[in-house]
Amino acid sequence: MIRPPTAVQQRLIAAADPLTGRLKGTDAQLAALVKRGLAFRHPRPPHDHFLTPAGHRLRETPAGQPPAAAPVPVDSGVFAARVGGDTSADSGPTRLREVRGAWQGLLELRRMTNPDGATDRPCGWERTHLVQAAALALEAAGHQPATGDQGTGYRVRATPQPEAVAVHEPDLTALRACAATLEQVGWQTSEHTQPRTRARYLLASPRRS
After folding, report:
1. Where is this region: Disordered (predicted)?
2. Residue 187 has what pLDDT?
3. Are 145 and 82 in contact (CB under 8 A)?
4. Contact 202, 178 (CB under 8 A)
5. Burial code of 4-15, b = ≥16 C-beta within 10 A, e = fewer?
6. 196: helix, coil or strand?
């Protein structure tokens, strides 16, 4: 169990970069955060320190409340990727900034956690949050999620297949544009036909190399 941080440590955590979680402080201060499981030292030069998922949760939790149980960089109470099918979908400037920030944060997560520092290939978090990761990639590229049960727009859904999601979009041109977007950011896709409705859809999975 992580002990409560000191006042100085709380200030360091609060001052961390809002997108990447990069920390600034003395060597002793950063080492103390690492010891408590709230930060980690990046293995590559310049060996900066970053918040761990526990550190992110602590920063996002109001004072006096226990931190949330599950760390989700782009699917938290602050930001949620739009998978399609919501009754409403705000696309104003605030949402655009949130999506842009979440995507940049995910690219930084790729850089920090992929063994070779690659940002063009999905990371471990994406492989365990397939629907959210694919939806974020689509929204960040400007694709519009479906609203409600009808009309155009993408819908990303889980499938029984390991490491694969289904992307539905009734407009075939838009569906193929979704495939191109996902392939550009490190996913592999294939197009299929639903046996009953004959509608086309994508199966998408994170590329490994």
Report:
1. 188-209
2. 97
3. yes
4. yes
5. ebeeebeebbee
6. coil
In the chain, domain spans: 7-60, 93-206
Instruction: Check: CB of residue 179 under 8 Å from CB of residue 198.
Output: no
Q: Residue 108, SS3? A: helix
- Give per-10-residue mean pLDDT for the chain (209 aa): 74 83 90 85 78 75 46 48 79 81 84 86 89 94 86 91 93 96 97 93 93
* Strands, E assignment, the chain: 22-23, 39-41, 49-51, 155-158, 165-168, 187-193, 200-206
Give me the pLDDT at residue 18, please.
73
Token duo for residue 61: 């939790």
